[in-house]
Amino acid sequence: MDFFAEMVSLQDTLEAAGLQVSIPAAEEVKVDYSATCDKDLARIKKQFIDEHLAKIRVADAVLLANFTKRGIVGYIGANTLMEAAFGYALGKPIFVLNSLGDQPCRPEVLGMQPTFLHGELKDLITSQLIMRQ
User: Alpha-carbon distance 52 to 46, whole Å?
Assistant: First the structure.
């Protein structure tokens, strides 16, 4: 969620190309999990997870918007890995926006055999438009 503005920009670009796009709920950006007790955190986070996984369930593909974070190029966090694995389990094509840096979940991401976009959306746009025909 640290890259919500970037996700909105990606959404705008993909929608301008004629694709339908769902991103995580904007309201999640406003939640301060560090100031939330575990009981409330679990309830709030469950709602966001359930809503986003429902979006993935009806999607044609999953795009991992991975940027540099904590000094790791192409960082994949817990939420992103969970979303990718869910999409993978449902048989959805997985696209990764940027190359992966050295990080603990690198083997798992590579094991899902995603398509790496190298910062360019054109291959995603082309593949999704072809799937719609």
Answer: 10
The answer to whether the CB of 82 falls within 8 A of the CB of 57 is no
Distance of CA 45 to the CA centre of its chain: 16
**H or E segment to which residue 116 belongs:** strand 115-116
> Rounded to an integer, what distance in angstroms lies between the CA atom of residue 44 and that of residue 63?
24
pLDDT score of 132 = 65
Comparing 30 with 112, the larger pLDDT belongs to 112
As a whole number of angstroms, the distance between CA 14 and CA 2 comes to 20
CB-count exposure of residue 96 (10 Å: 0-12, 13-18, 19+): buried
Task: Say which DSSP state 3 is in.
Answer: T
